[in-house]
Write a structure and sequence with these properties.
Radius of gyration: 15 Å
Number of strands: 4
CATH architecture: 3-Layer(aba) Sandwich
Distance between the termini: 28 Å
Helix content: 40-55%
Structural class: alpha/beta
Strand content: 15-25%
Number of domains: 1
Order of helices and strands: HHEHEHEHE
Shape: globular
Number of helices: 5
CATH class: Alpha Beta
CATH topology: Rossmann fold
Largest sheet: 4 strands, parallel
Strand order of the largest sheet: 3-2-1-4
């Protein structure tokens, strides 16, 4: 993320980005809606930026597992409209990986 921002910003803006944006390297990340679209792209980018662990969560079990294999992320079928499933997702990641540094909600279940 930071490298993309560096490419599109003028020099005056770079210091703000470096000071204000979170570095992804070595972070534990969850991306909901990670089986497609922006969520998939963000998860892929977090991996490229050096995240320690990325978990993608999505309602579509087959697709989330396929994408997880393709990009190297842990994949968990999750219905984010269910409090219980969200609690289970968070508990699983914290139990297996440690404290979650970033939760990126990209699902669009309405």
């Amino acid at each position: 993320m930071l490298s993309v921002a560096r490419e599109i910003c003028d020099p005056a803006c770079r210091k703000f980005i470096q000071d204000e944006l979170m570095e992804i390297k070595d972070k534990i990340v969850i991306v909901t809606g990670g089986a497609s679209g922006i969520g998939r792209s963000m998860a892929k980018r977090f991996i490229a930026e050096g995240a320690k662990h990325v978990t993608i969560a999505d309602l579509n079990a087959d697709q989330v597992h396929q994408v997880g294999k393709e990009i190297g992320a842990e994949a968990i079928k999750t219905d984010v409209s269910s409090d219980l499933e969200v609690q289970q997702l968070i508990a699983h990641v914290e139990a297996t990986q440690g404290k979650i540094d970033l939760l990126c909600n990209r699902c669009h279940n309405f």
